[in-house]
Specification:
Iontro_rcpt_C, 10 helices, D-Maltodextrin-Binding Protein, domain 2, three-stranded parallel beta sheet, Amino acid ABC transporter substrate-binding protein, about 20% strand, globular, single chain, SBP_3_CS, alpha/beta, signal, five-stranded mixed beta sheet
Length: about 260
């Protein structure tokens, strides 16, 4: 009898441990009163730092709306993009919200929500190359030098689709764009929403924007593997935001109106 009770007690303890281990990021955030989101605030117009040192942007506003729907505060944790997945794994924050493209390689390491927007890689090229370079294929030669931000799909695409060109990456987008502006590189490869702003904001009249995306890149929120309750909440939040018009209002603020440019340095 004692042996039976002992085994039963061990079984109950094991079930309790499993239940505890399955507590998701969203549940923990509600208990804590704060949703912590890892973010590299250098990606216009998704997440960026304004003149006052505040992190603003399209994705930031989406996350603010999500936190409000949970009844918690939003805490943004600045993290470099190349270390953002390891930081999630070591509980530096609850989820990733940093313009992260849902790739199969990343999906082997973390779970992704449904995409909140779809973008594609485009090119900013030196003005002098406008007659020579019409697509990314024209750059696939050792005669050209290309750049992007390291750790991004811009780098992955450059190394995969434009492998013959010389590649040099930078830790941030503006520095890489300026490499092209200053004639040290021939092309900058990056997501279309960033490039459409950067051509005027950073280009100084020396760049041409080739606006036809040549990749398909869904951007989504990242969570630890197995956190299906949190995925369910986030996906339902995104669905609700699209249906009630709040997503469209946020999208229009950052992609149609450009008043936010006045807040940038």
């Amino acid at each position: 009898m004692n042996k039976y009770l002992s085994m039963l007690l061990l079984g109950v303890m094991a079930m309790a441990a499993v239940g505890s281990a399955q507590a998701g990021a969203i549940d923990e955030a509600v208990k804590r009163g704060t949703l912590r989101v890892g973010m590299d605030p250098t990606y216009m117009p998704f997440e960026m730092t304004n003149k006052r040192g505040e992190i603003i942007g399209f994705e930031v506003d989406l996350l603010k709306a999500m936190a409000k729907s949970m009844g918690v505060k939003l805490e943004l944790v600045s993290t470099s993009l190349d270390g953002i997945i390891p930081a999630l794994m070591t509980d530096k924050f609850d989820m990733i919200g940093s313009g992260l493209t849902l790739t199969q390689e990343r999906n082997l390491r973390i779970n992704f929500s449904d995409p909140f927007i779809v973008v594609g890689q485009t090119l900013l090229i030196r003005k002098e190359l406008a007659d020579k370079v019409k697509t990314y294929k024209d750059l696939n030669s050792e005669d050209y030098r290309i750049t992007s931000k390291v750790g991004t799909t811009g780098e992955f695409v450059a190394r995969k689709l434009i492998a013959k060109a010389q590649y040099h990456g930078y830790d941030n987008e503006p520095e890489a764009v300026l490499d092209v502006v200053n004639g040290k590189a021939d092309a900058f490869i990056y997501d279309s929403p960033y490039n459409v702003v950067a051509v005027d904001k950073v280009g100084n009249g020396k760049l041409v924007y080739l606006d036809q995306p040549f990749t398909y890149e869904p951007l989504a929120f990242g969570l630890k593997k197995g956190d299906y309750d949190s995925l369910n909440f986030i996906n339902n939040f995104l669905r609700q935001a699209r249906e009630d018009g709040s997503y469209d209002r946020i999208h229009k603020k950052w992609f149609v109106n450009k008043n936010w440019l006045d807040e940038m340095q």
